[in-house]
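hey so u asked for the seq, here:
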Amino acid sequence: MADSNATGLDAKSGYSRVDSQPDVAMVLAGMDATATWPSVRYLRAWEHERLTPGPGAEVLDVGSGLGDIAIALAKEVTPGGRVVGLDASAAMIEVAERRAAGAGVEVGFRIADAMNLPEADSSFDVCRSERVLQWLPDPARAVAEMVRVLRPGGRLCLTDTDWFTLTIDLPDVGAISAFREAIWQLRGAPAAVGSRLLNLCRDAGVVELEATAATHIWTDWKPDTEYAPAGIFPIAPIVRQMIAADVLDPVLGERFIEQLLQAARDDRFFMSVGMFAVFGRRPG
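ran it, C-alpha coordinates below
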Protein backbone atom coordinates (compact mmCIF):
# COMPACT_ATOMS: atom_id res chain seq x y z
CA MET A 1 0.00 0.00 0.00
CA ALA A 2 1.27 3.48 -0.86
CA ASP A 3 2.13 5.73 2.04
CA SER A 4 0.36 9.06 1.49
CA ASN A 5 2.78 10.65 3.95
CA ALA A 6 5.93 9.48 2.13
CA THR A 7 8.50 12.26 2.13
CA GLY A 8 10.88 11.23 -0.64
CA LEU A 9 11.35 14.75 -1.93
CA ASP A 10 11.49 18.42 -1.16
CA ALA A 11 8.75 20.06 -3.23
CA LYS A 12 10.27 23.52 -3.22
CA SER A 13 13.61 22.52 -4.73
CA GLY A 14 12.22 19.70 -6.89
CA TYR A 15 14.28 19.16 -10.03
CA SER A 16 16.52 22.14 -9.26
CA ARG A 17 18.41 20.03 -6.70
CA VAL A 18 17.84 16.44 -7.74
CA ASP A 19 21.01 15.09 -6.12
CA SER A 20 20.02 16.38 -2.67
CA GLN A 21 16.49 14.97 -2.72
CA PRO A 22 15.72 12.41 0.01
CA ASP A 23 14.71 9.84 -2.65
CA VAL A 24 16.67 10.47 -5.85
CA ALA A 25 15.37 7.26 -7.45
CA MET A 26 11.78 8.51 -7.09
CA VAL A 27 12.66 11.75 -8.85
CA LEU A 28 14.41 9.94 -11.72
CA ALA A 29 11.47 7.57 -12.12
CA GLY A 30 9.23 10.62 -12.41
CA MET A 31 11.27 11.78 -15.40
CA ASP A 32 10.67 8.51 -17.21
CA ALA A 33 6.97 8.64 -16.35
CA THR A 34 6.44 12.15 -17.72
CA ALA A 35 8.17 11.17 -20.98
CA THR A 36 5.19 8.89 -21.67
CA TRP A 37 2.57 11.63 -21.28
CA PRO A 38 0.68 12.27 -24.54
CA SER A 39 1.16 16.00 -23.99
CA VAL A 40 4.94 15.61 -23.75
CA ARG A 41 5.05 13.36 -26.81
CA TYR A 42 3.03 15.91 -28.80
CA LEU A 43 5.23 18.84 -27.76
CA ARG A 44 8.42 16.90 -28.52
CA ALA A 45 7.12 16.01 -31.99
CA TRP A 46 6.17 19.66 -32.60
CA GLU A 47 9.66 20.70 -31.49
CA HIS A 48 11.39 18.16 -33.71
CA GLU A 49 9.53 19.30 -36.82
CA ARG A 50 10.92 22.79 -36.31
CA LEU A 51 14.43 22.10 -35.08
CA THR A 52 15.07 19.64 -37.93
CA PRO A 53 18.57 18.62 -36.88
CA GLY A 54 20.44 16.74 -39.58
CA PRO A 55 23.93 15.40 -40.35
CA GLY A 56 26.63 17.84 -39.27
CA ALA A 57 24.39 19.89 -36.94
CA GLU A 58 25.68 20.95 -33.54
CA VAL A 59 22.98 20.67 -30.88
CA LEU A 60 22.74 21.79 -27.26
CA ASP A 61 20.22 20.23 -24.86
CA VAL A 62 19.92 22.40 -21.75
CA GLY A 63 18.57 20.33 -18.88
CA SER A 64 19.12 17.06 -20.70
CA GLY A 65 17.85 14.97 -17.80
CA LEU A 66 18.07 11.24 -18.42
CA GLY A 67 19.38 11.92 -21.91
CA ASP A 68 16.75 10.30 -24.11
CA ILE A 69 16.22 13.29 -26.42
CA ALA A 70 19.95 14.04 -26.65
CA ILE A 71 20.59 10.40 -27.56
CA ALA A 72 17.94 10.47 -30.28
CA LEU A 73 19.39 13.70 -31.68
CA ALA A 74 22.93 12.27 -31.66
CA LYS A 75 21.77 9.62 -34.12
CA GLU A 76 20.37 12.29 -36.43
CA VAL A 77 23.42 14.56 -36.57
CA THR A 78 25.77 11.75 -37.59
CA PRO A 79 28.08 12.06 -39.46
CA GLY A 80 29.91 15.23 -38.59
CA GLY A 81 27.63 16.66 -35.93
CA ARG A 82 27.70 16.72 -32.15
CA VAL A 83 25.25 16.87 -29.27
CA VAL A 84 26.02 18.38 -25.88
CA GLY A 85 23.73 17.64 -22.94
CA LEU A 86 23.93 19.85 -19.87
CA ASP A 87 22.22 19.21 -16.54
CA ALA A 88 22.62 20.34 -12.93
CA SER A 89 22.29 16.78 -11.60
CA ALA A 90 25.15 14.30 -11.40
CA ALA A 91 22.61 11.49 -10.93
CA MET A 92 20.86 12.49 -14.16
CA ILE A 93 24.17 12.68 -16.04
CA GLU A 94 25.20 9.23 -14.80
CA VAL A 95 21.99 7.66 -16.13
CA ALA A 96 22.24 9.60 -19.40
CA GLU A 97 25.81 8.46 -20.02
CA ARG A 98 24.84 4.87 -19.36
CA ARG A 99 21.91 5.09 -21.76
CA ALA A 100 24.04 6.73 -24.46
CA ALA A 101 26.62 3.94 -24.17
CA GLY A 102 23.86 1.38 -24.47
CA ALA A 103 22.56 3.11 -27.59
CA GLY A 104 26.03 3.21 -29.12
CA VAL A 105 26.12 6.99 -29.56
CA GLU A 106 28.38 9.75 -28.27
CA VAL A 107 26.89 12.69 -26.39
CA GLY A 108 28.90 15.24 -24.44
CA PHE A 109 27.02 15.13 -21.13
CA ARG A 110 28.25 17.29 -18.30
CA ILE A 111 27.10 19.19 -15.24
CA ALA A 112 26.34 22.87 -15.82
CA ASP A 113 24.22 25.83 -14.71
CA ALA A 114 21.56 26.83 -17.26
CA MET A 115 21.95 30.47 -16.22
CA ASN A 116 25.69 30.43 -16.94
CA LEU A 117 26.27 28.07 -19.86
CA PRO A 118 29.89 26.88 -20.23
CA GLU A 119 29.76 27.26 -24.01
CA ALA A 120 31.24 29.81 -26.40
CA ASP A 121 29.19 32.45 -28.19
CA SER A 122 27.63 31.35 -31.49
CA SER A 123 28.70 27.70 -31.16
CA PHE A 124 25.47 25.74 -31.85
CA ASP A 125 22.98 25.43 -34.68
CA VAL A 126 20.17 24.15 -32.45
CA CYS A 127 19.28 24.55 -28.78
CA ARG A 128 16.42 22.99 -26.85
CA SER A 129 15.28 23.05 -23.24
CA GLU A 130 12.33 21.18 -21.77
CA ARG A 131 10.73 21.76 -18.37
CA VAL A 132 13.85 23.41 -16.97
CA LEU A 133 13.04 27.11 -16.66
CA GLN A 134 10.36 26.51 -14.02
CA TRP A 135 13.12 25.40 -11.62
CA LEU A 136 15.40 28.42 -12.13
CA PRO A 137 15.39 31.64 -10.10
CA ASP A 138 15.99 33.72 -13.26
CA PRO A 139 14.45 32.11 -16.37
CA ALA A 140 15.13 35.23 -18.47
CA ARG A 141 18.86 34.92 -17.88
CA ALA A 142 18.79 31.28 -18.97
CA VAL A 143 16.95 32.15 -22.19
CA ALA A 144 19.46 34.91 -22.92
CA GLU A 145 22.28 32.39 -22.40
CA MET A 146 20.71 29.94 -24.84
CA VAL A 147 20.35 32.66 -27.46
CA ARG A 148 23.97 33.70 -26.87
CA VAL A 149 25.38 30.27 -27.69
CA LEU A 150 23.33 29.94 -30.90
CA ARG A 151 24.82 30.93 -34.22
CA PRO A 152 23.00 33.67 -36.15
CA GLY A 153 19.91 32.02 -37.60
CA GLY A 154 20.19 29.19 -35.07
CA ARG A 155 17.01 27.45 -33.95
CA LEU A 156 15.66 27.47 -30.39
CA CYS A 157 12.79 25.57 -28.79
CA LEU A 158 11.64 25.97 -25.19
CA THR A 159 8.99 23.83 -23.51
CA ASP A 160 7.66 24.29 -20.01
CA THR A 161 4.72 23.89 -17.65
CA ASP A 162 2.49 26.54 -16.14
CA TRP A 163 1.48 25.11 -12.77
CA PHE A 164 -1.00 27.92 -12.25
CA THR A 165 -3.16 26.28 -14.93
CA LEU A 166 -3.58 23.32 -12.59
CA THR A 167 -7.22 22.19 -12.45
CA ILE A 168 -8.65 19.68 -9.99
CA ASP A 169 -12.29 18.67 -9.66
CA LEU A 170 -13.09 18.70 -5.93
CA PRO A 171 -16.17 19.80 -3.97
CA ASP A 172 -14.31 22.48 -2.01
CA VAL A 173 -13.30 25.21 -4.46
CA GLY A 174 -11.73 27.17 -1.61
CA ALA A 175 -9.31 24.36 -0.84
CA ILE A 176 -8.29 24.18 -4.51
CA SER A 177 -7.72 27.94 -4.64
CA ALA A 178 -5.65 27.81 -1.47
CA PHE A 179 -3.52 25.02 -2.92
CA ARG A 180 -2.85 27.02 -6.11
CA GLU A 181 -1.91 30.08 -4.07
CA ALA A 182 0.43 27.92 -1.99
CA ILE A 183 2.21 26.80 -5.17
CA TRP A 184 2.93 30.48 -5.89
CA GLN A 185 4.11 31.08 -2.34
CA LEU A 186 6.32 27.98 -2.31
CA ARG A 187 7.75 28.05 -5.84
CA GLY A 188 7.38 31.66 -6.95
CA ALA A 189 6.84 33.07 -10.44
CA PRO A 190 9.00 30.49 -12.30
CA ALA A 191 6.31 27.87 -11.61
CA ALA A 192 4.16 29.72 -14.17
CA VAL A 193 6.93 30.16 -16.74
CA GLY A 194 5.17 28.10 -19.41
CA SER A 195 2.81 30.90 -20.33
CA ARG A 196 5.69 33.40 -20.27
CA LEU A 197 7.87 31.61 -22.81
CA LEU A 198 6.81 33.66 -25.81
CA ASN A 199 7.57 37.01 -24.20
CA LEU A 200 10.80 35.72 -22.68
CA CYS A 201 11.90 34.86 -26.20
CA ARG A 202 10.76 38.24 -27.52
CA ASP A 203 12.74 39.97 -24.77
CA ALA A 204 15.83 37.92 -25.73
CA GLY A 205 15.53 39.05 -29.36
CA VAL A 206 14.32 35.74 -30.80
CA VAL A 207 12.49 36.10 -34.13
CA GLU A 208 10.17 34.04 -36.36
CA LEU A 209 8.35 32.89 -33.26
CA GLU A 210 5.77 30.12 -33.15
CA ALA A 211 3.92 28.76 -30.12
CA THR A 212 1.76 25.80 -29.20
CA ALA A 213 0.30 24.20 -26.09
CA ALA A 214 -0.94 20.88 -24.75
CA THR A 215 -2.93 19.92 -21.68
CA HIS A 216 -2.04 16.85 -19.71
CA ILE A 217 -5.01 15.15 -18.07
CA TRP A 218 -5.13 12.56 -15.29
CA THR A 219 -8.39 10.67 -14.82
CA ASP A 220 -7.22 7.74 -12.75
CA TRP A 221 -5.22 7.33 -9.56
CA LYS A 222 -5.20 4.47 -7.06
CA PRO A 223 -3.90 6.18 -3.91
CA ASP A 224 -3.86 2.97 -1.84
CA THR A 225 -1.34 1.32 -4.19
CA GLU A 226 0.30 4.28 -6.02
CA TYR A 227 2.23 7.12 -4.43
CA ALA A 228 0.87 9.67 -6.90
CA PRO A 229 -0.66 10.10 -10.34
CA ALA A 230 1.87 9.11 -13.03
CA GLY A 231 4.73 11.59 -13.29
CA ILE A 232 3.68 13.75 -10.32
CA PHE A 233 5.41 14.08 -6.97
CA PRO A 234 3.44 12.54 -4.07
CA ILE A 235 0.73 15.09 -3.37
CA ALA A 236 0.00 14.63 0.35
CA PRO A 237 3.64 15.24 1.40
CA ILE A 238 3.76 18.33 -0.81
CA VAL A 239 0.63 19.73 0.83
CA ARG A 240 2.06 19.06 4.28
CA GLN A 241 5.32 20.74 3.32
CA MET A 242 3.24 23.75 2.29
CA ILE A 243 1.52 23.70 5.68
CA ALA A 244 4.88 23.44 7.48
CA ALA A 245 6.21 26.34 5.40
CA ASP A 246 3.22 28.42 6.53
CA VAL A 247 2.01 29.04 2.96
CA LEU A 248 -1.15 26.92 3.27
CA ASP A 249 -3.79 26.95 5.99
CA PRO A 250 -3.69 23.57 7.81
CA VAL A 251 -7.47 23.10 7.75
CA LEU A 252 -7.72 23.83 4.03
CA GLY A 253 -4.66 21.72 3.31
CA GLU A 254 -5.95 18.64 5.10
CA ARG A 255 -9.38 19.12 3.53
CA PHE A 256 -7.69 19.24 0.11
CA ILE A 257 -5.86 15.95 0.78
CA GLU A 258 -8.99 14.26 2.13
CA GLN A 259 -11.15 15.24 -0.83
CA LEU A 260 -8.44 14.39 -3.37
CA LEU A 261 -7.99 10.90 -1.93
CA GLN A 262 -11.75 10.36 -1.74
CA ALA A 263 -12.23 11.43 -5.35
CA ALA A 264 -9.57 8.96 -6.45
CA ARG A 265 -11.05 6.11 -4.41
CA ASP A 266 -14.52 6.87 -5.78
CA ASP A 267 -13.23 6.79 -9.38
CA ARG A 268 -13.97 10.50 -9.76
CA PHE A 269 -10.40 11.75 -10.07
CA PHE A 270 -9.70 14.56 -12.54
CA MET A 271 -6.63 16.78 -12.70
CA SER A 272 -5.02 18.69 -15.55
CA VAL A 273 -2.15 21.08 -16.21
CA GLY A 274 -1.09 23.12 -19.23
CA MET A 275 2.27 22.87 -21.00
CA PHE A 276 3.59 25.30 -23.62
CA ALA A 277 6.29 25.35 -26.29
CA VAL A 278 7.87 28.18 -28.27
CA PHE A 279 10.13 27.99 -31.32
CA GLY A 280 12.18 30.75 -32.88
CA ARG A 281 15.53 31.78 -34.33
CA ARG A 282 18.40 33.93 -33.26
CA PRO A 283 18.45 36.98 -35.57
CA GLY A 284 20.89 36.87 -38.43
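Confidence is low (pLDDT under 50) at residues 1-6. The beta strands are 58-62, 82-87, 108-111, 124-130, 150-168, 207-218, 271-281.
lmk if thats what u needed
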